[in-house]
């Protein structure tokens, strides 16, 4: 795995008021350059782990996630009307419907859509509950996205055309496409029919058009350390934005956010609590050994918090091995066996 490098694309640098200076990211504000340091700002939070004796992790154990074969497989979230969302995602975003299934026994339907095939690209999996009791309690179209989830990211070679297509298909434009202040980089923000927000990026063609998942955290330092240790992610960059009263961090499996899918974590100054709602579910990530990966996660949760919520093993009714866990702030991740995942696509 590539060692963490402070790299950021020119458009992101400009958007966040920063610039590249050799191998360092520099934030420009109040006409004074200040080097970014995640530890430079204390975050006011109460950690449940504060009084627990520190857990010392063996470096050899932590090497497994860094050397494992991992990538973002899919991100899962709920929608109020599956057919309506399929129509919007294909016609507005330009995604392809890769597969759809109904699971009457478990009272849900799902659809997988993306800009490429599941074997090699990051895709979305939309879930719709067909449970009458669930619909009566929550309402068919009333999933709560919560205040903790942020947005997804899509890169496109023609952002202006994409915005107009989304508008024509009923999507909401929350920020029109345009150049960020002081740069030629172009971004926009839109919402789908369920209220999920997407940030659009004007870029050259990329292997991962679905390029980002962003959510809020209360303890950014701890979250970065968790995703580095438990999942072997590369900490690409951290940017402090005093004018926005927040700090963001980007992590992923690689070092160029223009070429890979990114997990973006954001910490808002003085915010100590977020709601997660019942809409967003989780990110699925590949692994060559579910059992070994789960053991690493278990050890890291003893040090940093979080918990295993599904012990490693085959998914009921299939041979696909997986494990599921929550990070210290309750965000869920599912690790899926690489070979089992690919075999499942062939069936």
UniProtKB/TrEMBL annotation:
Instruction: Give the source's domain of life in one word.
Output: Eukaryota
**Residues reported in the UniProt entry to bind Zn(2+):** 151, 199
Q: Where is the active site?
A: 199 (proton donor/acceptor)
The keyword Zinc is annotated on this UniProt entry: yes
Cofactor: bound how, per the entry note? Binds 1 zinc ion per subunit. In the homodimer, two zinc ions are bound between subunits.
VOC domain span: 71-203, 209-338
Question: What is any one of the record's Gene Ontology cellular component terms?
Answer: cytoplasm
Q: What class of enzyme is it?
A: lyase
The record's keywords, sorted A to Z, are:
Lyase, Metal-binding, Zinc
Give the EC number(s) under which this enzyme is classified.
Answer: 4.4.1.5
Any one Gene Ontology MF annotation carried by this entry is: metal ion binding
Query: Pathway involvement?
Result: Secondary metabolite metabolism; methylglyoxal degradation; (R)-lactate from methylglyoxal: step 1/2
- Record flagged with keyword Lyase: yes
Q: Which InterPro entries match?
A: Glyas_Bleomycin-R_OHBP_Dase, Glyas_Fos-R_dOase_dom, Glyoxalase_1, Glyoxalase_1_CS, VOC_core
Q: What is this protein called?
A: Lactoylglutathione lyase
Organism equals: Rhododendron griersonianum
Q: What is the lineage of its organism?
A: Eukaryota, Viridiplantae, Streptophyta, Embryophyta, Tracheophyta
